[in-house]
Amino acid sequence: VTTLEFALEKGLQILGGFTDVAINADGFKKSISSPGIGNYLTMAQSLSNTMKIGCSLKNSMVVAHGTGTFQNRSTESDVLNKVAEGFELKDWKVTALKGMLGHTMGPAAGDELMVALGIWNQGIIPGINTTNKLAQDVSSENLKFCLENTEVEKETIDTIFLNAKGFGGNNGSCGVVSPYFIESLL
User: Fold this and answer.
1) What span, in angstroms and rounded, lies between the C-alpha atoms of 139 and 151?
2) Who is most buried in 29, 43, 54, 82, counting CB within 10 A?
3) pTM to 2 decimals?
4) pLDDT tens, 97-131?
5) Going by C-beta distance under 8 Å and a sequence separation of 6 or more, which residues neighbour residue 88?
């Protein structure tokens, strides 16, 4: 019995589903001090795996790791911008939480997941409202950073990608598909 079959059998509310969790460690040890190629690989793998189940990437967005530090904002925005370019995405919506929550360390990806589920529940993308404008070192040619809370039609977002990058050490990206997309599969 699959998880989906179990949920249907028990009459559970479907909040979303996972396409994958892509991970990569860039160095010979799990934490290195400078970024490598790992996060480019994990994000691209998550987008590719999401396409394989029929989700439109045009109807997707990202909850970034978003620490806002110089090294993170420049490297993560470059990762997201280049992955968006590679998958021909324009104005790919991006939000992040750490400006409001702080760096929660262990539960950071869980915070991102709660935001994704909240977007589908409430129809509001929480904005990166701790800044008025992007820093000059932020790549944004293919991205649309949500600096203010943004109302959306929640049924129009098929996938929300979560990104947990480790400055070139451990990198993890995950595609979370909407309950509406899962219902369409049924």
Assistant:
1) 24
2) 43
3) 0.90
4) 876 766 666 666 778 899 999 999 999 999 998 88
5) none
